[in-house]
Every structure is written in structure tokens, then in C-alpha cells.
Amino acid sequence: MTSAARVTQRSPAHRDEVTAVHGARWIATAVVVVGAVNYAYTLILTRLLDVSGYAVFAAGQGLVVCTAAVAVVTVPWMLAQALARAGSDTERSEAVRFAVLTAVAGGIVAAIAVGCVAMEFAGTLTTLAVAGSTLAIYVTRVSVGWLQGTERLRTLAVLTAAEALLKFGVGLFFVAALGLGETGALAAFGVAVLPYVFFWPHRFRDQPRRPWRSVSADRDLWRRASGVASLQGVVALLASIDIVLVAMLPTDRAAAASYQAAVMLGRVPLFLAGAVSIAFLPALSRRRAGDPLTASALRMYLTVALPLTVVAATVPNALITQIFPSGYSMVSTLMACTATSGLALGALALLVTFAQAVNDYGCLRTLLVGLGLYVTALTSGWATGGVLGMAIGGLCGTVAALLLLAVRHSRRHGFGVAERPFGRVVLPLLALAAGLALLRPFTYVWFAAALVVTTGALWRFFGRRRTPVLGIGPDEASEGGPEAGPEEAPPNGGAAAETEPIPQRTAPPPAEARGTRAAVHDERAVNLLVDAVWRGRVRPAADEELLGALAAARRNQVEGRLARAYPRQLAATLTEVESATELFRRNLVESTDRLRAAGLPTVLIKADLAGDYVYGNFDLVVPPGRLRAAQAALDGWYAHRTTYWLERSTKVLLEPLKGPAAHLHGSVSWFGVPVVPTDRLFARAEHVARPGTADGRANGSPDGHRRGAGEVDTADPGTDGCAWLTPCPSDRLRIWLAHALFQNLTLDLSELLALRSLLHPDIVAEARREAAREGWSAGSRGALGTAVEAMARLDRGEYVPLPLPLPVATSLRVGAEHSGHLLGEGRLRTATREASLRVPLVMTKKLRRRVP
């Protein structure tokens, strides 16, 4: 199952949180890489350029960065918010068109402006490089907003880091190899953003063509763009005005340099807040004000920002003197103020993001008042105590602005779920600060303690895994699960119309009230699961043992079967599974009916219609070359569209407001590598009748086993026929095996049950012939042999690890076998793709299984 499929098994709130948390980690990592590369780039250029050339470069870089800051905070954030709320391709198309218009028009205006300024200090070629780089940055921000809005945050992070690395390499090549001097160093800014062109928003087909001037008349988009620019512009002023002011005021240059260095170190929390904001904005834009996700975003920020601030504020002077030259003697004195103000500024930036997500642009007035207080405090502090007074005044002004905005936000929206008690957050922080302050005279001891604190904070931010919301009981509500309340429509009435409230559960029996954290994942629990589900032997079980079996059942997608074996103790789970199965059948019928009405047949794969369905999506294969047409046919049915970067041309996940998503496949492939030919799949597929019919053989099985609740038959569709097809038995057998071999590298208990019903000699023989035709004969035999051996051991009551891992040798051999087959057919690109992905896939799956 793909990572997107695993995420969609969870509640919408938790799914959004997981996506945002992982995205924030990727964005934060990219920010660190960009900062390090930019610093190295600047440092090396001081050696490669003469003094006058470097001065021109620094001035041109400042122009590019300052003017591009408007595009960076306006175009991507506005587009990301519009895409997150859009309910149809028409709305998405309008948002993209508006973003392109504003980016191009704004880029032209900005390029002309910076060109006019650059002519005062640079030559013609350097001026053109500055103007061209500015225009390129503006235009490519559309791709940034597209990736952010579609929540492809990992791709965005990789591109952000790649931009810095490409600028570094190209700039040094232009300067050192071609001798282009400052012109080449500035032209690298424009070259570095070219990879974003490959992620330009795709065209929305079947949308009515409208003149570009009609896009400019959309008042809501203009209001949103101006609101975002205003809010983020004020935040940018709060973050930079003190650095400019200290350079302009008549003060000692060494003291001013010390202040600027201290501010650079103290602004680290602001960069972390930016990463969290970028990742959480799309999810927050789909939800109501005061959603629990706001608390999750704030908690993630404080998790790492608070400890880092304490470390920065208590850094010993002896360590500072080792890092900075002698002229920066005041850095250590100023750090306590600048680090704390950086923490407050990051929190303020998050509050602005929360307000922006719900179109609360009225907070601009409060923000402007805070800006006024901040400037007043800065100037008053400088007049009273020089640079040190300015640092103290900046701290007071930032805290005052933060308090104003926090009070307003709390009264209007709240902060989602209640946070931990005040004392449990502040007292440990005060103790940590006091401890590090006492250790300041002992530099080496302080450094060791600070290293431990910093490592722990970064581990919690980057490496800590949140517990999945799988369960049963109160833990679910605490993680933002269904009991956190119904989702509401976004304020602009966009994509998500208000969904139906999820029914509140009754008080669960003892086995479920204790939460999944008390589950016993031992051999006894697995044996209980196997006895009940595989062997049909229901024996009395204690609550703790049953809870462990339920946890194992969830990992194997058979919780419904276990709940039916113990209906009293697992009543809530049974209700949950039945509700999920009903939603699956409803969404399947709705989506396939729409596709059939558009003339698109579909084949449902990897689904056992005879029983429960607890996956987060269902898989539909459409005819070759019809993937885009299928998306267009479902326009309006789904609220959110996602793709996996390795499979973006072959698969798409369309998520409705409620229930499992439709996973559309252009072919039966994994990671872009086709396995089962689509044309033969459709040629051999069978019609099914509507669920609940009583005639015909069950689910196309040749042995005519007794049909379960809602099972379908293979009679002619007629008036009761379903809109989808099912693979013939031998194709079903191969698809289950291929899914295990080419993606999961495991077979869970639900898959073993599906395979057991297909182990008829005729079906197995035909499947082997087809697998040989498709080039993975040895792999299919190895996987089937592993499965059959495991089934025999389960029949005998012996222990089998579940899910059952396939042997590493089998996983590697099937990759070599199939890629060789593809190479023999002349499909060099596909064969190379499979060969290059096979070893990383095997290693990743093997390491993941070791993680508890």
C-alpha cells in the first residue's frame, strides 16, 4: 500500500496533521540547506571577486531578494490557499490563471523597477542579469504555489534545496570558469529557478476558455492576494526593520555589526515558523477557525523553538569570541534579547498564518498597531541605551505586538484544542534556562549540555513519529480524530461543504476503553487472531489479549473478521468497520457510475467485495490513455486530488469529502513500472451484479463457495449490473502477488485469505502462464510458494509473522527478472527505472519492518 493510502485510512484531521508535520520537517530541512549554501556562496565570492565587484554583487543581490520577497509571500500562498479550498477543476483553473497573471505582471513591473535602480551602480549586462533574475523568480513562484497547494511538500523542499545548490554551482562556474564576474554571480539567481518550470501547473482539460482579462475581475482572488501581501509584508517589516535601522542610526559600527550578527542568530525560530506555516497552510485553509490543527502547528513550532531559544540566549561569551572576530564583542550580551524576540516573532508569524488561512485579514489593523509599538520601542531603546537599549526595546516591542495579536486571535478564533497546562510548559523551560545560565562560566560543560538540549529538540522535530490514529477509545479524540468534532466548510464556501457529523460512540467495553497503547503485540495475541480469523475457532479471551489481537488485526486489515468473532467485546470496532464498508460501496458505486456515464469502463482490483473493506482507497484501472478523461469525469465528486511523485503519470488519488478515495490507475503498475497488461486485463475482465443479488456464483469463484454479506456474482449486468468490472480469477491471483512483490514486499492476513480462495489448480496454472508472458515467472512462483507454506503453517496452528515478509532474495530476483524482460522488449527507460528502484525499495521496507 502506498504512503498516500496509509494516510487516507486515518481521520481527515489526523491525515492533514500527518501531511503537514512531515511537510514541515522537509521544508525546515530545505531551509537549513539553503542557509548553509547561501552562506558558502557569499563567502566564496568574497575571494573570487574584487572589492568593487563584490559590492556590485551585494547590492544586486539585495535588490533581487527584496523585490522577490513580494512574490514569495503573495503568489504561492494565495495560490496554495485557493487550491486547498477549490472544489472543482474549474476553480483550480481560475486560481492558477490568476496566479500566472499576477506573477507575470508583477515580475515585469519588478524587473523594470530593479533595472532602473541597478543602472545607478552597475553596467548594462549586470543590470539585465538583475532584471532577468527578478522576472524568473516571480514567474516560477506559480510552481511553488502549485506544489504547496497540492501538498507535494517533499518535492517543494527538494526543489528549494536544489535551487540553492544550482545557484551555487552555476554561479561559481560563471565566475571562476567563464570569468563573468558579478554579472555571472547574479545571473545564477535566474538560472537556478529553471527546475521549477518542470513542475508548472498542468492544464485543466474540458474547462471553458475565458479571456485573461476575465481573471483579473475576480474580486475574491484580488482580495486574497492583497490580504496575503499586506499581512506577510508587515511580518517582513517586523523581521528586518531593526537591521536596517541600526545601520542608519549614528552609532558605533562595531556595536551595529554585533547587533546584526546577534539578530541573524536569533532569527532561527522565524525560519522554523515559516516552514511550519508553509506546510500547515493548505490543511488549515480547508478548515474552520480555531481548528485543532492550529494547536498542532503551534505545538510543533514550540517543540523545537523554545529549547533553541534558551540555548541561544545563554551562550557563553568565551564561545562567541571563538566564533566572531574581536570587533563583535557585544554579541553575547545582545543574544538574550535577540533570541527571545526571534521566538516571539516566529510565534507572531504563525498567528498571522492562522488568520490568513480563514480569510481574517482584519487582523492587519492589529498588526499595524503592533508594528507601530515595535518601531517606537526600537527608537526609544536606542535613544535611551544605544544598541543594547535597542535590543531590549526590540524585545519589548515584539512581545507587545505578539500579545496584541494573540489576544485578538484568542477572542475571535481560539487556539483549537486545549494545550498542556501552563506550568507544565513554562516551569521546565525556566528550569532549563536557569541551568544553562548557571553553566555559562564553564564553557565546555555548557557546550555539552547545550548539545544535548539541541539534539533532543531537533530529534523531536525531525525524528519523532506520531502515533497513528487507528483506534478505539479516548486516544483518538486527543489526536484530532473523529471525536474532535465534524469538519466544517471553509469560510469562503469553497471545496469542502460541511460534512455529516460522525456519530459519537457509546461507552466501549473494557477491551476497547483502554486504548491501543495497552495492546499486547506478542505471540499469544497473534495466535488468538489466527484462531479466530484463519481457523474459525473462537475461544474465550481476556481483554488485554483481545486488544493485542485487535492491534495485529488492524495491521493485517482483518479487524472486521475479528470483531465479528467477538461482537460483544469489540462492538464499537464492528460498527466502525460496517460503516467504513458501507461508505466504500457507496463511493465505489457513485464514482464508477459517473465513469460509465462518460463512456469509461473500469476494473476494480485488490478488493474483496465479499467482506469488509477498511482500506483508505479503492483501486480502479481505466483504459490506456484515459486517465485524464477519468479525472474530468469525476470532477465535482472529489474534493482533493493527490499524486505520488514517482507515479504521477500513472496514478492519481481522488478524495471525496467522506469515505475512501478513488485511486485511478492508468495501468496495473507500481512506481511507474507496468506488470499486468491493461488491454488483456480488460479483455478478460468479468461483469458483476449489484451487491446483494442472490443468484450466480460468488464473486466469480469457480468453486461456488457460500457468498458473504453483500457479495456479488458474475451474472450479466442487465439492469442490476455494476458499473465496474472485476479481473478474472487468474488475473486476481497475479495482481495480489504482484502487489506484494513490486510494492509491499509483504503479505498480510487479508491477502493470504484472498489468495487461499484462488488456489484452484486451473487458476494457478493459468496465472503461471500469464506471469511467464509478463516476465516475472520465477518471482510469482517464489511469492506463491512462500504464501502456500505460510498457509500450511497457519492451518497447523504454528506461529507465522504477520504481515508475512517475502524473502529478500525473492524481492531482488523478481526485480532483476522483470527489468531484464522489459529490456528485452526494448523498454529501456522502464527497465532502468525498475532496476534503480528495486534495491532502495527492498532496503526501505526491511528497515521499516525493524522499527517498532
State the main characteristics.
31 helices; mainly alpha; 852 residues; seven-stranded mixed beta sheet; 66% helix; two-stranded antiparallel sheet
Task: Please explain how this structure is put together.
- It is a single chain.
- The chain is mostly helical and 852 residues long.
- Helices cover 66% and strands 5% of the residues.
- It is built from 31 helices and eleven strands.
- It has a seven-stranded mixed sheet, sandwiched between helices. The protein has a two-stranded antiparallel sheet with strand order 6-7.
- Helix 2 (12-48) packs parallel to helix 12 (292-313), helix 14 crosses helix 15 and helix 20 (523-534) packs across helix 21.
- The longest helix is centred in the middle third of the chain and has 50 residues, at 363-412.
- The chain is globular.
- Mean pLDDT is 75; it is low at 1-12, 417-423, 464-521 and 692-719.
